[in-house]
Design brief:
By secondary structure, the chain is α/β, with parallel strands linked by helices. Helix content is about 20%, strand content about 30%. The relative contact order is 0.19.
């Protein structure tokens, strides 16, 4: 049996369904499927620039349970793939487009009752849904808030963004600040730690690539251990920013 993950990004058991960038390499796909995880792949969104054109965390935001706020201009195939899994899709107000900040409207990092986001650039519908749920909003300058944040627990993150790091500490969120770079992002200079990670079980965070390839890989693993989390490398080599691996369902026993 399966159930919807109630707290976005933070499953309580073994993950059964994830959304991934449609360009994930064969090793990533094989390893996820070997763990019994179903994959919904994104399709290219033509209005976005190439590097992020498939990134899940650009296209939608999981509110928890069966509720998702989704950009109104995502392709039909992806929309119906989520709907077929039983999700209640709430259309955002604004379309995602290639020019910043029109591509970060749904890029919100959610930790249980807290959301890290740039309020000015967040889609109005998504903002209203967060407020209705009494989610505490931590306003940051970084528009790519979810891309920049690896969620470790309900009150812990990893980021290379100093502004997010400072705001997190001010709001009693444990935070590890790492060096920017050392993560591939197609034709761009580098990607972000949030975009190469995501939970695959309650105590395991998956990495696109090898965490050991990062110069602060040891510090990252030690930080995960501090919060009783393990890591799982999904492929060999350098870390790759495919956009957050987003868990949506988990196995359950009734």
């Amino acid at each position: 049996m399966e159930k919807f993950i109630e707290i976005p990004n933070l499953p309580k058991g073994e993950v059964s369904l994830v959304v991934c960038d449609g360009r994930i390499n064969s090793d990533v796909e094989y390893n996820l499927r070997e763990m019994g995880i179903k994959i919904i792949k994104t399709n290219k969104q033509k209005l976005l620039y190439e590097a992020v054109s498939y990134h899940p965390d650009i296209l939608f935001h999981h509110l928890g349970g069966d509720k998702i706020v989704i950009a109104p201009n995502v392709d039909d195939k992806f929309y119906y793939a989520l709907e077929d899994e039983g999700f209640n899709l709430i259309l955002g107000k604004d379309k995602i487009e290639g020019i910043y900040p029109k591509d970060v409207l749904y890029n919100v990092a959610r930790l249980k009752d807290v959301a890290i986001l740039n309020i000015r650039y967040t889609d109005e519908v998504l903002l209203d849904e967060l407020i209705k749920r009494n989610i505490k909003l931590i306003d940051v300058k970084q528009g790519y808030a979810k891309c920049s944040v690896c969620i470790v627990s309900e009150d812990a993150i990893i980021t290379s963004d100093r502004g997010i790091y400072k705001k997190a500490l001010q709001n009693s969120i444990n935070s590890l600040l790492i060096k920017p770079g050392y993560i591939d992002l197609f034709e761009l200079n580098y990607g972000f730690i949030g975009g190469c990670t995501g939970f695959i079980s309650n105590d395991t965070i998956a990495f696109y690539g090898e965490v050991e390839s990062h110069p602060e890989g040891t510090e990252i693993k030690n930080f995960l251990n501090k919060f009783e989390k393990k890591h799982q490398n999904l492929s060999k080599g350098k870390l790759i920013d495919y956009g957050t691996l987003i868990p949506l369902k988990e196995y359950c026993i009734i």
